[in-house]
Specification:
This protein is 77% helix and 1% strand. By secondary structure, the chain is mainly α. A two-stranded antiparallel ribbon has the order 1-2. Helix 1 (2-10) packs across helix 7 (112-141), helix 3 packs parallel to helix 5 and helix 14 (287-306) packs antiparallel against helix 15 (310-324). The chain is globular.
Length: 435
């Protein structure tokens, strides 16, 4: 589902030149349309998550996937700027709530000591989508004229219908709760329930009995800092998602197919970095240091890409992607560890929705810069500056469950009554894994 999600929100990057030629959508209009998706996503994210709590994860996640697939397929009916804007906004409405719903879903299935790797396996769907979108979209664009449709219309139609089919399949495949998982033994289900309950009890004890309403989450400086950090990350992700093909086209001798293949390289590099860093974060518990390092790598790579030749810039963007796209499995466990258990779902939705405005600011800003200067260099420099500022902000985060406690490097807390049960929980999970 994550692969389809990223494929349908980012495939317009490969259709940009065709939309300009066929519909007269210029760089600024393209950037605005690409970014309007995130305005709708932000507005409807929290309401979507509230509805998920009412209807259950299985039904709601499946509904979201089918909805965005249908809307994405309808992109083939775009006739100009306004219909393009409307469909991109509607796509944001359809997708709203997907990412925080999955992240919250994982908190109800796995203890903190396993969430980094779980988030990486889930988030890698986006990287696989970015890696495959070029090789897939290029041939679809070459279908230009088949059955009276342009190549970009075929691309939106086929990739949109794929999402709708996956959403229907997911409804029959997903389980909403651990107790519904017939593929686990009774002992395995009990081990998971016990481990997650102990994690939540430990976090609740660390945070005390403070109220956790929406207003208390909104006014928290800690949440504000987390939003800024992830806002900077989203700027880098979506600036590269929507403008990487344009940057690669500056390499002499490229065409639709080679642009698609070369554009997949940064995302392929990020896959290996993501799994490696997620595993290190789970094993050591030192996610804050990893977060700072990845943000600095994103800053250096983005700046170097702005001041070098197109070929070298692609190499530098590979390094930058290893930074900004590897952050998710490090960042979200920090959020889940930092927030009160009763506020985790709301906090994830709030952070993700507001930070996703970076997906509006960066593509639209890149469009304005490219239209006025003929280059994306200043846009890349701005991304580098935001990543560097986010790295500074990350110094003020704490990924420990509470002051005065420290982790032993394996996700367990020393010096507290919870330490022994944590070891028992890990043993139970390990013993049950043989099944």
């Amino acid at each position: 589902m994550m692969m389809c999600n990223q494929l349908n929100r980012s495939n317009i990057g490969y259709a940009q030149s065709h939309l300009e030629a066929d519909l007269g959508i210029g760089a600024a209009a393209y950037g605005l349309g690409a970014g309007l998706f995130f305005i709708a996503y932000t507005v409807f994210e929290i309401p979507s998550n509230m509805l998920m709590e009412r209807f259950g994860a299985k039904l709601w996640l499946s509904r979201i996937c089918v909805s965005w697939g249908i809307v994405s397929a309808c992109m083939l009916f775009a006739q100009g700027e306004w219909s393009f804007y409307f469909l991109r906004f509607l796509l944001g409405v359809a997708e709203a709530g997907f990412v925080p719903a999955v992240l919250y879903y994982l908190t109800k299935w796995l203890p903190n000591s396993h969430r980094g790797r779980a988030n990486a396996r889930y988030a890698v769907g986006a990287l696989v989508a970015f890696s495959l979108s070029g090789p897939l979209s290029g041939p679809l664009l070459s279908l230009d004229g088949a059955w009276g449709l342009a190549g970009w219309q075929w691309m939106f139609l086929i990739e949109g219908l794929l999402s709708a089919c996956v959403g229907v399949f997911a409804y029959f495949w997903l389980d909403s709760k651990i107790d519904d998982a017939r593929w686990l033994s009774a002992a395995e289900r009990q081990a998971l329930v016990t481990a997650i309950a102990a994690d939540e009890a430990e976090a609740a004890a660390a945070h005390g009995s403070r109220r956790t309403g929406l207003w208390s989450v909104l006014r928290s400086p800690k949440v504000g800092l987390l939003i800024f950090i992830y806002f900077s990350v989203q700027m880098s992700i979506y600036a590269n998602t929507f403008w990487l093909p344009s940057i690669v086209r500056d390499i002499e001798g490229t065409n639709d197919v080679t642009v698609g293949l070369l554009s997949s390289l940064p995302w392929i590099c990020a896959i290996f970095a993501m799994f490696t860093l997620a595993r290190i974060g789970d094993r050591t518990g030192r996610r804050k240091a990893l977060l700072i390092g990845t943000l600095l790598l994103a800053a250096v790579g983005s700046y170097a890409a702005a001041v070098t030749s197109p070929v070298v810039a692609l190499v530098m963007l590979c390094l930058a992607a290893m930074g900004f796209k590897s952050i998710s499995p490090i960042f979200w466990p920090i959020v889940q560890r930092t927030l009160h258990p009763m506020a985790v779902g709301m906090g994830i939705a709030l952070i993700n929705s507001l930070a996703n405005l970076g997906g509006f600011v960066a593509p639209y800003g890149f469009g304005l810069v490219e239209e006025r200067t003929g280059s994306t260099a200043w846009g890349l420099i701005a991304l580098a500056a935001f990543s560097a500022l986010a790295a500074v902000g990350a110094f003020f985060l704490s990924d420990a469950p509470a002051e005065g406690r420290k982790e032993d490097g394996k996700g367990r807390t020393e010096g507290t009554p919870e330490a022994a049960p944590a070891q028992t929980r890990k043993t139970a999970l390990t013993d049950n894994s043989s099944h």
